[in-house]
Amino acid sequence: MAQYKVMIVGASGAVGQELLNVLEEKNFPVGELKLCATSRSAGKEMYFKGQPYVVEETQPASFDGMDIALFAGGEASKEFGPLAAAKGVVVIDNSSHFRLDPQVPLVVPEVNPEDVKLHRGIIANPNCSTIIMVVPLKAIYDAAGVKRVVVSTYQAVSGAGAEGIEELTAHARAALEGRAVTPAKFPYQIAFNLIPHIDVFQEMDYTKEEWKMVKETRKIMHDDSLAITATTVRVPVYRSHSESVNIETERKITAAQARDVLSRFPGVIVEDDPAHKKYPMPLFTSGRDEVFVGRIREDNSVAQGLNLWVVSDQLRKGAATNAVQIAELVVKYGCLGKR
Amino acid sequence: MAQYKVMIVGASGAVGQELLNVLEEKNFPVGELKLCATSRSAGKEMYFKGQPYVVEETQPASFDGMDIALFAGGEASKEFGPLAAAKGVVVIDNSSHFRLDPQVPLVVPEVNPEDVKLHRGIIANPNCSTIIMVVPLKAIYDAAGVKRVVVSTYQAVSGAGAEGIEELTAHARAALEGRAVTPAKFPYQIAFNLIPHIDVFQEMDYTKEEWKMVKETRKIMHDDSLAITATTVRVPVYRSHSESVNIETERKITAAQARDVLSRFPGVIVEDDPAHKKYPMPLFTSGRDEVFVGRIREDNSVAQGLNLWVVSDQLRKGAATNAVQIAELVVKYGCLGKR
Q1: By the 8 A CB rule, do B242 and B154 touch?
Q2: pTM exceeds 0.90
């Protein structure tokens, strides 16, 4: 079996570490591995299949001869992404820089795998909240059509990286001990609070996070007429995003039918047994690769409607797992870069 | 000015304490005050305007000669409510027992104050999540009509009483110290988690809490055609419920117009200045009597739509404040019980 020269750019962060974990767990055919990051993290030791690797500072020359570069996100994507692609490396990018570029495929493997074949060097990994919603949405879309989606999110602090995690702990400790809380990463105290503000505010007073859920979903689903509105909220949960998703379908679908199509859809686990208090919760989905769906209910406030409660680990399926799945498709379709 | 003989039934609980606070803060014309509760709390001392009062066990005779009885909720309402009403006491009841009874007015003073006049001894105080939603909803209803509402809630643990509050603290401490968490009041760990399950499951797999938001809102608004769907979720916040409310209006209303009608509506405070990071958050609305509304945005996913983020202290406006406001209307309209 062929092996590939794989690198992670931004290896030392929360998503970088998960990329490394998922490459190992999925037994991706890694022939050679290179871990890169900013100079601040250079020299750090990380482990892959029991072997230590030293993180190098990302340089233009770092990409020479590599096959696939998984970018964890941030500024490095803008700085090195196009350069890496020009050198014949397939870039799988977790930042938002290229997602809406018409020349860059935006891929969720359960939804639009074939789009991988259209890449010109860069393939974008969607926003975490978008990925988590779009997987079950596609199952319903295929079964009953989708007219309109109203989504409200409950997003974990690890969406803001390792600093977000540390800040929730610091705020919770301070609040429990009656000490003053000093927000740094978040605009306000996040422990025992909710902040309806993720990423920057943009047109019509929607946040960038909210627009991502609208625009990226349309691109992934190849349906510009898909009506979507989103409200995104940070909650005091460490890991796994949750979403209350209301779907107006084109055709009638019962809760039982929805449960059936969802449970047969790849990457989805249905947890929906109210009598036994079974429904997805963020505390119990962390470290998992699937999207968990429960509270599946017909919505009679509209001719054909459905309510879903969707939970998934946003560092896994919402980021690292989806990126490695894209890398698997690149290998499967044989669409590596040309050198 | 006339003074009234007022009693609180269930005085020793979280809502009972707030009822006492609000009676004092609003300077309700209390001529005589009686505090009642179950035998378990009898003998407890509580303060009103600096004077100590001893909690008595609720007995049928407790109601003799009283004018107004504020019931904090629970089983006492079913047991003593009709009896108190038969004795000529106006019962203002915070339980769910009588809310959907066609002979019992269900009142939010900013929305349907005149319904107080129709009482036959019992006036019901709506569910906390319903009250918090229906106040801003009425402002929009009057300005642009309402076709459909999709609401997702983020509900504080104090909605489950003092035990809910203690359990969040206990779970948070245990989780931070790496100790095992033992849920009692909630079905699962609530600290650093979300539980999409409030009250019991009922028809169509909706919870009773979700049905309350549908059925009570229709009754309060006098509009049985109002289409509403709800998903209710417990979040690790001590106090104040938050709601993401999507409204499809009959007529077009801009965000600016919505901001205007909401800011002029009684009981509403608009906090909506994204450029200065101003939006309602549960941590900062506790102890307040108003409903805070922010993140006011037009929703273009439908012909005429609006998104609101609504936060309010569910022990105040969601319970005690609303009940005392009803008592004020009873006095204002002179519709006390007949003896």
Answers
A1: yes
A2: yes
